[in-house]
Amino acid sequence: MNYLIDMYNIIYKFFDKLEDKIRGKLTHYPIVYAFIGCVGIISIWRGVWVISDNWNISGFASLFLGILLTLATGLFISFFIGDNIIISGINKEKRVDEKTEEEIHKERTVITKIQKDIKGIKDILEKDK
To answer: What residues make up the domain containing 104?
Structure first.
């Protein structure tokens, strides 16, 4: 079991460093970045589709290529899970469907107050111009 955890950590660290380098370079070329991400995501879906139809080797190849591309570009987790879910999990927040009506109303009230405060600050800054 420890062997599997060690392997996971090695793979995770490798892709984390690789992702940082690749993402750093690709952010300067957003169209290329989007295209690579698109190819990766479509390859994953194609792989899943082909594997579910007939367990063809090309399905496994597509799935592997897609996962590799999206891991390397940092899109795998953000596309399939989403940043909001990860952040809410770290902050130990409830999902919207788990919140009560009262909790949602309280959040809405806080957000409305923040928006009013921001508008007030904006008005003050515009008067100073």
So the answer is: 99-129
